[in-house]
Amino acid sequence: MQRTMNPAKTRSALLTAALASVQILIVLLMLRVTLWLLGYLWSVVWPLVVALLLTTLTWPVARFLRRHRWPATLAAVAVTLGSLLLAVGAVILIAVPVASQSGDLTDGVVDGIQQVREWASGPPLNIGDDQITQAFDAAAARLQDSVGSIVTTTLVGVTTVVNGVITAVLAVFLMFFFLKDGPRFLPWLTRQLPGRLAVDVPIIATRSWDTLGAFVRSQAFVGLLDAICIGIGLWIVGVPLVLPLAALTFLTAFVPIVGALFAGFVAVLIALVSNGLGDAVIVLVIIVAVQQLEGNVFSPMIQSRGLGLHPAVVLLAVTLGGGLAGIVGSLLAVPVAALVGVFWGYLREQLSDPDADPGPGPELDPELVPEPETPGASENPA
Fold first, then answer.
1. Which UniProt key words apply to this protein (predicted)?
2. Are residues 216 and 81 in the same domain?
């Protein structure tokens, strides 16, 4: 017996699908508008994001000082200055040994180029000096033809550097204010929001803060693990500048993909000009092995435990973020995915039982909560 479709059920299903489609389109449109606003305000948003990441990394020290009766301002100043001194020390740790051996490295680069030239002139390539000269001439001619684009690229690079300096300065100042007045934000926000939002928003903000802290700590741990493994490998091979290269590996770990490539390129180049081609190949193998373990094993496992994300989600988030926004997208992909997970988890909790008690709200450190304001006093945070 052939069964026919029920017209009423069919219309109901189509109507439900149409409504769901319209709702999804509205959500996607709002998401598009939000992303456009973020891009339009990126010069302000980016320093704010960097400051938040730095604050999550330095807040445990500031909290320790405040719990030991340091004034909030003094603790923020001490942590900010200490962070700057640590950053400057890391730069000096990398720059001074490199500068002291710059002469030997320069001679090694020249010798390496000469060795490559002699190797190219022999079998199986048999490239003569006249061919090499012609290649250099062709490269010089092409370089002259590309002067305009080179100048444009240089100007863009200078602008990028200037913007980076401005972002760093703004991020440091914002970090200071976050360390100083951060604990006053949630009580102030609770007083400003009406009704249910006064409970929901502070809870989501607290969970998001914990998630960002977990991300920064896990990233620092992964960078430290990379630095130790690669540093031990360089020390065994006998490559000079082991400590600066390990420090460079740790610092560049906070910039996904490009950071690892840059640190690896520097290590291989120094091994090539100081130890020769054989050791350079060994160093390359070590770096590739460590980076593969870090990218496919260590980082997904550590970040998934700290952020509550499956390793596959971490890998897909980094890939998607890099495809959408390059280096910045790769850097922010994992914390953004974790924050989305926090929001969705809380939303699912509320939707699963609408009559449930939302709870007392986020727990605040009693030592960091400001004194109650007197009636009539301003409600703006200091």
1. Cell membrane, Membrane, Transmembrane, Transmembrane helix, Transport
2. no
The Cβ-side half-sphere exposure at 168, using a 13 Å CA radius, reads: 9
Contact 66, 52 (CB under 8 A): no
Domain count within the chain: 2
Q: Provide the domain limits for residue 158.
A: 43-100+130-181
Cβ-contact 75, 83 below 8 angstroms: no
Radius of gyration of the chain (CA): 28
pLDDT tens digits, residue range 213-248? Answer: 877 777 788 788 888 888 898 888 888 778 778 887
- Residues 170, 266 share a domain: no
Cα angle 158, 163, 168; round to 5: 125
Kindly report the number of other CB atoms within 10 A of residue 203's CB atom.
Answer: 20
Give the pLDDT confidence of 103-133 residue by residue, as tens digits.
665 666 566 566 666 666 666 666 666 666 6
First to last CA, the chain: 78
Task: Verify that 206 and 237 share a domain, yes or no.
Answer: yes
Q: Is the pTM of this model over 0.85?
A: no
